Structure of UbiD family decarboxylase:
Amino acid sequence: MRDYIARLRARGDLLVVDKEIDPFHELAAVTAAAQKRWDKPILFNKVKGTRFPVVTNVYGSRERLAEVIGIDAKDFCRQWSNLAALGKGTAGADPFARVEDDGLIECKLSDLPLITYSDRDAAPYFTSAMFIAKDPETGVGNLSYHRSMYVSDDELRCRLAPRHHLTIYHEKAEKMGKPLEAAMLIGAPATSFLTAAAPLPYDVDELEVAARLKGAPIAMRKCKYIDLEVPADTEIVIEGRFLPNERRAEGPFGEFMGYYVPEGPNAVFEVLGVTVRRDAVFHSILCGSPEEVLTLELSVSANIYQRLSAALPGILDVTCQPFVTHAIIKIDPQFEGHARQVMLATIGAEPIWAKVVTVVDDDVNIYDMDDVMWAILTRCRPDKDMLIIPETPSFYRDDAKDHWGRLLIDATKPFNRREEFERKKIRLADTVNLADWFPNA
Ligand SMILES: Cc1cc2nc3c(=O)[nH]c(=O)nc-3n(C[C@H](O)[C@H](O)[C@H](O)COP(=O)(O)O)c2cc1C
Ligand SMILES: [Mn+2]
């Protein structure tokens, strides 16, 4: 992450704030406003109550995420398939190299920036920490993010949602009556940012995939207090263990859907030690911002793209916007009713997130919601091109069934009258250079 920040800074893409900022709500407010205005990474050099600078919005755009893993931002869905395949027992060199720690410094948890994000959050939270742990039975490694509420220097409470791999490890360890050792990585190697967030298969080690993406072994060092290795380049490592058969109150917390999750019983992480690199930088992720939701949108889009392509022709691109529960599919219609098959296949391909599905032609920019809306408003007859599928669940955490039912929108041109829907073009529009005409603007 450090190298990537240096690259961003060198080319003038890093916003640097030297004025002191308060981690209690102020940092989140300034981050939100600056993200909205510029969508650039921000480095806060002076944060009240801590010696650590805070960087945020590092991975908050498709272009930066694509750059980090060395692929074309416009071809994410297709190239992602290779990513998932990278983990499948690729033969070859050891993806990890072992190094000694070179001058790590120890500190207390409360020496780190303790950032409070949303208005009603119960406490400061760590939002960018990747948990690294090993399956207590097989020893296979895993990386995943889990928000963690600061309680004291010795205790964090972490949201381990059902079915996530770390959650399964924790439950396995509990059955053995053992704590589960884990380390939280803050500012881990940039290639691991996306792999940690991706829903890779259970037996795939996300860090190994990150190494294969990087094309070189990741240097690992031993932890000080637990029997685990962590990437040596990680800025900050919090070592600890999940206590067996212990759940304590966590929340409320302002979450990615834009609401507060209420207080509830969650996992207890006993902190055993914190090690930091010299001049360590702390990574903060504003919950619900592109830096958090983009990884989810990208992996859901790629998943839909792969599964649809296996079943149907003419699938050109997929994105989820303006939120992960809306899938937009760009197709090249091959036969009457093709779009309808695509819509129905999408809810089979993505049972969790595709609550609303819109299918458009290849002359629509699926990354521009206004353009998608234009297609709906001009090419879709609500009485016959919109389908409501009743009584079908989607988002899993939904006891009140607020997300039940699906809406499918065919916004492609009527198949037998396609030529009537030719999009008008302004001749020369692509060649105009505004500076030639408005030199002073
Ligand atoms: C920034 C960020 C924060 C997240 N927070 C949580 C969380 O608090 N709890 C949770 O269970 N999953 C959270 N997730 C989702 C999981 O980390 C993600 O689904 C991951 O792929 C799970 O890894 P696994 O497939 O190895 O279980 C978060 C994801 C991101 C990108
Ligand atoms: Mn996993």
In short: The mean pLDDT is 94. The longest helix spans residues 290-311. The two ends are 37 Å apart (CA to CA).
